[in-house]
DNA sequence: TGCTTTTGCTTCGAACTCGAAGCAACTCAA
DNA sequence: TTGAGTTGCTTCGAGTTCGAAGCAAAAGCA
């Protein structure tokens, strides 16, 4: 490999730009639907989805896992969801610090109500123009990229844990 | 065709989730770098990039084109960029309503300063785990998806005249 | 010409996000 | 046991986003 080429070649730029813009548009569509159909945001939908899938209680940390958002943002959203009666929060018996989050019947009902429409949006906006081969390729590629990024150190903002070395 | 199947099959879910999470992570990395290296946000970087590429003046509307953000958000960001001396705004002679935006030397300099690092982040986070074939596939797929979504009507944001269920 | 509608942008208020700081509970080694 | 360090979550403040409403210029139309 050469030492840091000047820029990106056309194919790289195209892939990068198309990727970012397409996902931006998709997020926007999804957001619109969820807001109109269930009065919730994408973040809230994802939280409900996690709880519905977990089929039990999750701590705040587990709930945030995989989501980029900050802890404080999660606290805020959890507050909204609790106020809306979609989840309940309680202190864990095992660990007094931990907050256990449980989805309520109303939360589950709302999730089930908006899910079909959500799937429909994803189908129409993302899946529609893709062949089975495309779908396979996309899943394979993005899974690899995601796993790669999960393992990459932040480079700049180093975690303030203990010094190593 | 069948009437809206119950959900998504595993391959579809995998592709959808991996896509959304990977892009989320990438955006986060990019944001971190730009903030640390140039003191600007991703949005501001994109605006500067557009202006640098346009090599002249753009109206606010042209500047927002392709970016999902609202007009008011663009006004806000343009205000910040102008305050920072990276762009200038002036009224168009042709159309008194239009605001023409021009990138300053300082803006261009800043853009050029952060670009290499930005490219490096994209390389390391997104491009690194991809083969030439992957890159080609990804560009092809996402370009198709993006163009598809650009042409799709909003679907959901329609006037809510109809009763629900 | 007058009038309505459309277009381009801004202002305003509400909502959302993040990081830093703070608090309380837990862990672990001495 | 005890005290330093870590972990889980919340609070707070600053910054950013959006949509609705508003304003002025332009375009359509009678």
TrEMBL record, chains A, B:
Supply the Pfam families for this chain: MarR_2 (PF12802)
Q: Which SMART domains match?
A: HTH_MARR
At the highest ranks, the source species' classification is:
Bacteria, Bacillati, Actinomycetota, Actinomycetes, Micromonosporales
In terms of domain of life, where is this protein from? Answer: Bacteria
Q: Where is the signal peptide?
A: none
Domain HTH marR-type, chain residue ranges per copy: 12-147
This one is known as: MarR family transcriptional regulator
Q: Where is this region: Disordered?
A: 146-165
Organism equals: Asanoa iriomotensis
Instruction: Identify the InterPro entries for this entry.
Output: HTH_MarR-typ (IPR000835), MarR/SlyA-like (IPR039422), WH-like_DNA-bd_sf (IPR036388), WH_DNA-bd_sf (IPR036390)
């Amino acid at each position: 490999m050469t030492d840091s080429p000047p820029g990106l070649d056309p194919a790289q730029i195209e892939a990068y730009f198309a990727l970012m813009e397409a996902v931006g548009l998709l997020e926007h569509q999804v957001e619109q639907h969820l807001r109109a159909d269930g009065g919730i945001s994408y973040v809230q939908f994802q939280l409900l989805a996690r709880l519905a899938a977990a089929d039990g209680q999750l701590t705040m940390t587990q709930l945030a896992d995989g989501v980029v958002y900050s802890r404080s943002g999660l606290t805020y959203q959890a507050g909204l969801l609790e106020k809306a009666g979609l989840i309940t929060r309680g202190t864990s018996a095992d660990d007094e610090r931990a907050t256990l989050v449980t989805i309520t019947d109303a939360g589950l009902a709302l999730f089930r109500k908006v899910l079909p429409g959500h799937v429909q949006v994803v189908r129409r906006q993302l899946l529609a123009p893709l062949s089975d081969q495309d779908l396979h390729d996309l899943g394979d590629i993005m899974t690899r990229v995601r796993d790669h990024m999960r393992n990459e150190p932040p480079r700049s903002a180093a975690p303030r844990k203990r010094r190593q070395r």
